[in-house]
Amino acid sequence: MTQARNVLGSELKTCCSAPMTGYYRDGKCNTGAGDYGAHVVCAELTAEFLNFTKSQGNDLSTPVPEFNFPGLKPGDRWCLCASRWKEALDAGVAPPIILQSTHASALEYVSLSELKQHALDRDTTE
């Protein structure tokens, strides 16, 4: 199996393990055939984004114990659906992202320059 790559072309880094994120709940924004939402953008959540996604029908802030989902708060890192991040970008509420932890397949939804404009780890792009 080949190593997953990030949008910068290097090895995909862990996004977050507390709370445990990723489609496969391995802490990384890995993707595969069953990940129809493409949970590939590692974002640091903001109140504005959490309110936006709730208004779009995806409440990430309310815990769902039966699915072992703790509910998210501003400052948490989470692997977001690339299309939802793009919607938030278009609405002016895109949360900042971590390039080294954002899967290369995110580039099918947004450009690298758009991602870099919202990157917390800009120093890695030089």
Short description:
The protein has 126 residues and is of the alpha+beta class. It contains three helices and two strands; from the N terminus they run E-H-E-H-H.
How would you portray this structure in words?
By secondary structure, the protein is α+β, with helices and mostly antiparallel strands. Helix content is 20%, strand content 9%. The protein has helices at 47-55, 82-91, 112-117; strands at 39-44, 77-81. Strands 1-2 form a two-stranded antiparallel ribbon. The longest helix has 10 residues, at 82-91. It is globular.
Please trace the helix and strand order, writing H or E for each element. Answer: EHEHH
Main sheet specs? 2 strands, antiparallel
Shape: globular
Order of strands in the sheet with most strands: 1-2
